[in-house]
Amino acid sequence: MDDLAKNWVKVTEKYQKDGSALIDHVKFLEITISTHTETGQAEEEITVPLQRNYTGTKPVISSSLADTPCTTLPLLGLLERLNTTLRNITHLGHPGSLLPP
């Protein structure tokens, strides 16, 4: 594995660990997201019941973000969207900035 690949593994492992800790320990406001507000469809039209609506305190992503192919976003764009979803304030100026010193 070359240095770039090793660095990428370290960055993604740290980001995953930090994101999991954030979700487990932060008190998020309760939100409600529903298919009607996201897609304009009636809830009955959605065949998977657990995808019809959600009310809770865990971070969720919108259907428009879920439907965005990862290949259309550069790496930093993807991480910025994750930061926004998780309400994280990690500076993403350079992927190496996510690594511990």
Index terms:
101 residues; mainly alpha; two-stranded antiparallel sheet; 8% strand
Could you characterize what this model shows?
By secondary structure, the chain is mostly helical. It has one domain (3-98). It has 4 helices and 2 strands; from the N terminus they run αβαβαα. It has a two-stranded antiparallel sheet.
Q: Enumerate how many helices there are, as a single number.
A: 4
**Overall shape:** globular
Q: Uncertain segments of ≥5 residues (pLDDT<50)?
A: none
Oligomer: single chain
Total domain units: 1
Average pLDDT for all residues:
69
Q: What percentage of residues falls in helices of 4 or more residues? A: 40-55%
Give the percentage of residues in beta strands. Answer: 5-15%
N-to-C order of helices and strands: HEHEHH
Number of strands: 2
* Gyration radius, in Å: 16 Å
Cα(first) to Cα(last) distance is 22 Å
Strand order of the largest sheet: 1-2
